[in-house]
Amino acid sequence: ALCALSGAAAVLYHDYCVLGAGPAGLQAAYFLQQAGRDYVVFERSHAPGSFFALYPRHRKLISINKQYTGKSNSEFNLRHDWNSLLSHDRRLLFRHYSRDFFPQADAMVRYLEDFASLLELRVQYNTAIIHVTLERNGQAWNGHYFLLTDQDRKNYKCSSLLVATGTWVPNVVNFPGSEYVEGYETVSINPEDFAGQTVLILGRGNSAFETAENILGVTNFIHMVSRSRVRLSWATHYVGDLRAINNGLLDTYQLKSLDGLLEGDLEDLAIVKDKKGKLHITLRFYLENRNISAGIDSITFPQDELDNFATRAPYDRVIRCLGWKFDFSIYNRSLRMMPGKGNIKKYPQIKPSYESRGTRGLFVLGTASHSVDFRKSAGGFIHGFRYTTRAVHRLLENRHHGVPWPSTVYPITQLTNSIIKRVNEASGLYQMFSVLADIILLRENATAFEYLEEYPIGVLAELEMQTGRKASSGLFVIIMEYGRNFSGADKDVFYYNRAVGEAQHAWQSNFLHPVIYYYKRLPTEREMKLRPPEWPLPRPDAIHHIVEDFLTDWTAPNAHILPLRRFLENCLSTDLRNFFAESCFLFAFTRQKLPPFCQQGYMRMQGLVGSKGLRRHAVQAGLLQDYTPTDFSGDTPPESHHRSQDQLLRDQVISVRPLQHLVNAKDE
Amino acid sequence: MSNQEDSWVSSFVFLHLCASSIPILGSTVLLQELSPQHYFSGLEAGRASLAFFTHQASPGAQPFLEQIESSAEVLQDYGISVVKVNCPKEDASRYCGKENALRKAYLFRGNILIREFPTDALFDVNSIVANVLFALLFNEVKYVETLADLQNIENVLRGKSNMVFAYVPATGTAEHRAVMEAAFVYGTIHQFVLTTEAALLKATGNDGPDVSSAWLLFCHCQRATDPAQPCRRTALGQPLTLLNIHRHLKLMGAPLVTEVAEDPEKVSTVHLQLGLPLVFILSQKETYEADRRTAEFVAWQLLGKAGVALLSRDIVDLNVLHQSNVALKTPDEGVPIQYLVLEDTDEVITLVEDKTKVKQIQEEEEEQEDEDEKENNNQDIQDDQVVEAVSRDKKQELPLEQVLVLTEETFHSSLSEAARTVVLFYASWEAVSLAVLRSYSEVADHLKGTPGVLLSRVNCWDWPGICTQENVTQFPTVKIYQKGEKSVTYDGMWGTDELTSFIILSRVSCPLKLATMEEAEGYLRGEFPAELSSHHHPALLGVFSTATSEAREAFEAAGNVLSGHVKMGMYLEDDALALSRKYSMSPPALLLARSRGRSVEGIALSKQSVQDMVQMIRYELLDIFPEITVQNLPQYLQLTKPFLILFSDGDINQMESEEMLKLAKGSPQQAFVACWLNLKKTPVGFGILRVYFATVPSLPVLVWVNLHAGGQVFKFPPEQSITEVNVLSWLEKLRAGLETPSSTMSEEDWKPPLPAYDFLQMMDTAMPELPLHNSHRPGDMPAQHPPKSPGGDTAMREEPSQQTMAEKVGSPGRDLRGTAPRLAAREKQGKRHSEL
């Protein structure tokens, strides 16, 4: 008792406590460390990434580790590196840890160990936080402190709690006979143990298919049963759905090679073991009024009434692969950590800002935060939550330390460029499509703008408060979207003409493509709530889709950049074209106002003189007038020259035309 | 342009109204089908109808039937009904009985047969309409075959009414139809005369007309009084379409010269409404008669091309130059009236004809483009000169051997290798960057072999990390890295010469410390270190006695800012006093040596902030009477003063130069920038003059431009010689408001050149009826829901493959920007062929 008392007196305090040294916890620790914050990470295990030490059982990660993209752009390459965490240290790229496209889980464990040690993150291992409660205090950042107790009854106090414990509690179902069911956590991974056996797998996620894949070749047959239909990730565009790498069983099922899929509610199930140890499937309904101990012979089986009942054959083993859920058990009732509703009940309830709905100052990071974009984007996976964790960190910096959301101010002439640059390389926008957005805040008179990266659009209405930036003169929101209704478990994603080629049909693009929303003023909370279903944002004042691109390279001058420029010009009501110095010179003498490019470049003595060759091209295109004295020799009127230029232009245009039809994939 | 379109639309509406004001038969069913009894009993007096008789099965008439059906609508507009009469089998009456009759169509007025047409004369809608109207308008349209016939008609008409004479190469053509349709409307006003005789056309004195195309002349016989003279004729310059004829006749009907006594900006005539310019002849009471004659003369010349108005200056108070005698108003909205001083009538005519030519070209182009891109309004045509120029140049390989490519790996090591590394940060997809890259390759060429300078580049699209780290937020950026010093960011013009000069000047420290009196004096004489010897910038020498550290520090700091732009030296030895005395200054002082020491100016330095010092140095380096170029204009614009600028075709002569220099020096506090522009060197100056004066005036021309206040442009009277006295007195008049501006710089804002795709609206229109599930091609639907029943298997298997075949065949070569599967599909098809 004395010990506990003194322990309580010497409560260790940190501004930030992070629970869990998995990928999300370490990622959060990295940002806190970079910002010089007072933080600590608590980890149950003796090393980081304990989940990966056990899972996936068959050791193959399904997150891609692309070695080559043909590009050297490090930001772009992160789009195809689903395993690395964000850091400044280039040694800490996952491709240095594995060359496999689908790497081994052990590589992840090693990677996380290095990440924690090379960056000298402050992780307290072997510390299992078993209880979290609140201590009211008006002085505290959030009106309360978080009091944490570990397995040794040691107490810790924090102002802000970042929960990155993932989802590690296995989902179980209880039905008569569920005691015969083996769990994914412990089931043998040696295929030989399954030789000549008949196996029933409960569940239809990647762990179930991964288990099936492993034993497919040696079993008599495998049946899989679950309530919902199989969701293929290439049809849903959701990386958490069944991945092609695991779907060997679909092949054997559809080719009638004995394996099969069934739909049914596991709650209705019952398993009966016969004397030989075989497991028979029946329905809970049949057992309701019976005494099981009366012996197997007295039990009714579905096949007794329906002699072609699908699962009438007995099984040697039943394996449960039903996934995991968040550990709600350690939180005091006062924290109101509630499970979500419906299909997100395995996650705690959080706001789009990743803050708990029940407790201010408690943020959920990593896999456990996936309720925000469940079955949509990548927020439950490393390649997604590394960005949402950064976003949370930026929110915290602003809230607690008065550090506004990082931003860069550019002259308006860089507007098109800054968007094109980001949509082509930004990984956060790409992975966390329709969740994180780049925001462009226009300055007064639209002569300059401020660029904010990867802000969570769910809290767009609170932007000024959350970022410390002003959005008084209108804003652009840049996100990436799949075509509405393109993705879905029952959708044919290979139909003809699925790809749009023409910029004017860009809004019908199906594959991931940039979309820019323009608002004259920040949408209100109410507008956010009332937004149309399936829309990530409320109705904007104007919208622009950059047409999907087969190479995800949105730098084509005419198909991508030109329509974008026209959109921006029309939102801002200005002319965003570039001009050679000579044109600016002419405008300076003949117009009282100048276009922004001349105003911000030429007039500041940074005009674009351009080489002779380029200016000649511009003249041939009819976009620049050539005034050289030859065309002013009195007898030929100056316009005749003009005409020949136009003639040239027309020739050019005609020669180019047929190509435009070539690229037209969306033929009306 | 929109104005013009409007007028076209309105004229069309007018025609349509005329046409449809005639009562119409059977408005719902265009082609009536009647029995012979019904038809003949229903004929009303005075009403025309075109009938053809047919037995149930007469296959030969089928194509003719289609044509006649489609002409029914047009004919209905002229009150002519088209009737198909179904003959009963046994009928052997006049029209039904004979086999011959069935190959003809009959035109009745009331129950009187006017003409019968063999069906082969009615081969299409044009021929049907032309022939039917021709038959009906027998009195209104005279057909002539000889010149004598034509002259007879002319003689009859002379002094009474006008004549429209049309030549068509053949009847039944579209042109013939257009003439007939026009005659239907105007036949009661003008006498229409038609011929198909090419000889007759030649005889009318049209110089070598092309007899293969139709021709229409308006003959002004009403005004003609002299029986010996043929009536004046005005040819229609455009193709013979109903709209063009209508337009021509409207123009011919307008008064020759309109007398105007109101603000010309408010004047609107038929010409402007029809998209033609209006020429004002500015008149005064004293010269009214002569002006009127001039106006009429010009009007005849311009008939059909422009309108002419006589504007009395005595009545209307015009705020224009007194000398102006002609004004031109174009139909384009927002274009101000141009006031001109022209010497003879030919100039007026040339002016208008040139305008129309340009216009026609534009129109033709627009028409063509309209046809091609009716929907999207050219939005997808590049209108950015830089982007377009760069993409036209993209196949040209740049000579970049002299420029080192830096990567994330090599960036830092390279910087430590050379004494001075110039780095161009750019993005390979960005047009301005690529334009600068072209200049940069030229810079590299200029600096080839210059020791101690390494030119390199970083593509920020490949290496965003370095660019962020080096704080590159804009493309392009040029930085000069020097061992052990802070990098310098280039902030000058993106031109080869400017960048080269910057790099060269940056090689020498700024300011350059001079150790001895000899060095200092040599510096002022233009003896520079070897690195700078080739460079012709004015040189600046700061002279400081050691005590004056404050000014010296400011000078040194200013040197840092101006490094690369200015040649700056510094002398601070003990005998600095002696040096400055030579130029009657005392330290701290600036000595400014222009043109290699031929003149040295002294400027006293006082306590100044660095910024003021920079400002002051920049100001002092400006020329008093500079030649304005594209590159140096911004420096002078920053003075925010009006410009007195002499446009010269080539170098200015000594006399003018001296007078202007005197003027510049003499102006109190240099209230304006006196400068000149060499049109040979800066040909864009012609563009400026054309905007100011519509045409290029005789050169040299001295112009006063209020660049920053109001934008008025004044032209120095060309008859005066450019001397200080003359110009000063002219400026005095300007200031007193006694001169009127030749033009005013446009105040227009820079709006978006074209609209954007309105996706929001497209979504709005598309969404209600499609739950988007249906937005796939309709043909895709069966494939999307494969039949589950095994029985349907075989039947359905055919369908998808047919469909895919159709898909492949139906869209040849449309798939480049789509997806690989489409390409693969084509390959497969090829394979299949080889298998077959």
UniProtKB/TrEMBL annotation, chain A:
What is its biological role? Probable flavoprotein which may function in endoplasmic reticulum associated degradation (ERAD). May bind non-native proteins in the endoplasmic reticulum and target them to the ubiquitination machinery for subsequent degradation.
Renumbered to this chain, region (Disordered) spans: 627-647
Essential cofactor(s): FAD
- A GO biological process held by the record: ERAD pathway
Taxonomy-wise, where does this protein's organism fall, top ranks first? Eukaryota, Metazoa, Chordata, Craniata, Vertebrata
Q: Which domain of life is it from?
A: Eukaryota
Stored Pfam families: Pyr_redox_3 (PF13738)
> What's in the keyword line of the UniProt record?
Endoplasmic reticulum, FAD, Flavoprotein, Glycoprotein, Oxidoreductase, Signal
Natural source organism = Grallaria varia (variegated antpitta)
What quaternary arrangement does the UniProt entry report? Interacts with SEL1L. May interact with OS9 and DNAJC10. Interacts with TXNDC16.
The family line of this record is:
Belongs to the FOXRED2 family.
Q: What is this protein called?
A: FAD-dependent oxidoreductase domain-containing protein 2
Q: List GO molecular-function terms, semicolon-separated.
A: flavin adenine dinucleotide binding; monooxygenase activity
Q: Which GO terms describe its cellular component?
A: endoplasmic reticulum lumen
- Composition bias (Basic and acidic residues) maps to 638-647
From TrEMBL, chain B:
Entries under InterPro entries matching the protein: Thioredoxin-like_sf (IPR036249), Thioredoxin_domain (IPR013766), TXNDC16 (IPR040090), TXNDC16_2nd (IPR057642), TXNDC16_3rd (IPR057645), TXNDC16_N (IPR057639)
Gene3D superfamilies xref list: Glutaredoxin
Q: Which Pfam families match?
A: Thioredoxin, Thioredoxin_6, TXNDC16_2nd, TXNDC16_3rd, TXNDC16_N
Please state every residue range assigned to the domain named Thioredoxin: 403-503
Q: Where is this region: Disordered?
A: 360-384, 769-836
Q: Which residue ranges have biased composition labelled Basic and acidic residues? A: 824-836
Q: Where does the record place the TXNDC16 third thioredoxin-like domain?
A: 256-347
Q: Where are the transmembrane segments?
A: 12-31
Indicate the segments forming the TXNDC16 N-terminal domain, all copies. Answer: 31-133
Know the name of this protein? TXD16 protein
Q: Which organism is it from?
A: Grallaria varia (variegated antpitta)
The taxonomic lineage of its organism, from the top, reads:
Eukaryota, Metazoa, Chordata, Craniata, Vertebrata
Which gene codes for it?
Txndc16
